[in-house]
Amino acid sequence: MLVPARRLCAMLAAISIAALSGCVVPSAPPPPVKPAPPPAPMAPHQLSADQPDFLRLPNMAKEKTPLRVGVILPFSNASAGTRTLANGMLKAAELALYDSGNRDIILMTADDSAKPEEAAAAARKLLSQGAEVIVGPLFAASVTAVAPLARDRGVPVIAFSTDRTVAGDGVYLLSFQPQNEVRRVIAYAVEQGHKNFAALIPNTGYGQVSERAFREAVAAGGGTVSSVEHFAPSSGAVMDQAAAIAKAGADAVFIPQGGALLRAIAPTLAFSGVDPAKVKLLGTGLWDDLAITRETALRDGWFAAPAPETDRKFVEKYRETFGSAPPQLAALAYDALSLVALIGAGRPYHRFTENALTDPNGFSGVDGIFRFNANGSIDRGLSVLAVRPGGFDVISPAPETFQQKGS
Q1: Which runs of E-coded beta strand occur in 56-153?
Q2: Which range among 64-68, 144-148, 301-305, 365-369 shows the weakest confidence by mean pLDDT?
Q3: CB 284, CB 256: distance < 8 Å
Q4: Residue ranges of the alpha helices (H) in 272-398?
Q5: Does the predicted model carry a pTM greater than 0.90?
Q6: Within 10 A of 316 (CB to CB), how many other CB atoms are there?
Q7: Closest CA to 210 of 199, 222, 220, 197
């Protein structure tokens, strides 16, 4: 259960990054352009009382207004793995509902199969049934389709995409976003005395987002970025880039890449002259893969993620209830419904306010503390882990509160 106060090895959706166009110097000064008006605040919920055509359970007292929660997930997606994930997330949501003890919550499900037009139809269906809040969708394009429909009704959306461009104006992303992981590991490296950073970045949407966060985090810590090299993951060739990194003389190298390619990059860096005994390798949650512990060149590297076994109680309860281990992201749905149940104790149609959802103290979830920002992004309390033979050690525990020390 959530109280006021796993990780993600594969990103759920392609992160849309707009290409930057070249600059053209005009021959004459352009006319002044009026600044765009700020986005309007989200409207309050349009309803103030229950409606007779809204969905309710047969055994529910007529004088009670149930908390109707719309759940949009890709139950009929073409991918068997995605279908398994969607069903696992629904089970986790049901488990959270049971654990909350709130018997006045109705889960109403709808399928989008990851197609935006189906996501929009699903949202219309759930809103017509009286949904006060929507949980899901999973993919960025579906979130974009759902958002304006929910916003028109004053209904918040707690979605699972990692793409921050679809957040805000009533859309909150309950996911693992690379920006949090990058900030955490870079800040820790700076605390440990590292000042000269280099990076080996994949030419992917994830790489672009990670690079931006990397540069911002290094600057915030007073460090220097001495070299950034890019590579095409499809080629698997990084010899030239590794040689350039070695020449930069950095004391830390950031690599937002996982899997077999990461296990190939590390020894290539060592071969090119990057001494892992002197140069710290840094990564993101994509490193949260026990297979990398077999690569000696990655030994003692650091990355940010929830601590191992953080979700143990959830996994055990899910297994005991449903007879199998939960899909990797099922805990996100558990946290979403736990949050809904917590806030849902308030007055119907007046409870899911921006102030309630963006409580600066945050909430405690399966994988540690988290909180939503006004722009819909999420902050997470993460540990810093070190790669060891056969596992990971927590070298900097996750914070237990968002309050600053001494405040």
Answers
A1: 67-73, 105-111, 133-135
A2: 64-68
A3: yes
A4: 312-322, 330-343, 354-357
A5: no
A6: 11
A7: 199
pLDDT of residue 20: 26
Which residues have C-beta within 8 Å of that of residue 262, sequence separation ≥ 6?
255, 283, 286, 287, 292, 295, 298
- Burial (CB < 10 A; 0-12, 13-18, 19+), residue 76, is middle
Written as one string, the DSSP assignment of 127-180 is HHTT-SEEE--SSHHHHHHHHHHHHHHT--EEE----GGG-BTTEEE-S--HHH
Torsional class of 168: left (φ above 0), alpha (ψ -120 to 50), beta (otherwise): left
Note the pLDDT of residue 44.
Answer: 56
Nearest in space to 111 (alpha carbons), one of 100, 125, 129, 101: 125
SS3 call for 87:
helix
Q: What is the mean pLDDT of the chain?
A: 88
Mean pLDDT of 42-54: 62
Confidence of residue 12 (pLDDT cuts 50, 70, 90): very low
Q: What is the pLDDT of residues 219-253, one digit of tens each?
A: 999 999 999 999 999 887 899 999 999 999 999 99
Residues 6+ apart with CB under 8 A from 306: 6, 7, 367, 368, 382, 383, 398
Tell the residue number behind the tokens 């949009």, with chain if given. 72
- For residues 257 and 241, give the distance between their C-alpha atoms in angstroms, rounded to a whole number: 14
How wide is the angle at C-alpha 298 spanned by C-alphas 297 and 300, nearest 5°? 115
Q: How far apart are CA 6 and CA 154, in angstroms?
A: 30
Let me know: does 322 contact 314? Beta carbons within 8 Å. no
Note the pLDDT of residue 14. Answer: 35
Q: How many CA atoms lie within 13 A of 266 on its CB side?
A: 27
pLDDT in tens, 258-317: 999 999 999 999 999 999 899 999 999 999 999 999 999 999 999 999 998 899 999 999
Residues in the chain: 407
Task: Give which of 226, 282, 275 is closest to 257, Cα–Cα.
Answer: 282
The residues pairing with 391 across neighbouring beta strands, listed in sequence order, are 388
pLDDT at residue 129 is higher than 80 = yes
- Is the CB of residue 240 less than 8 Å from the CB of residue 211? no
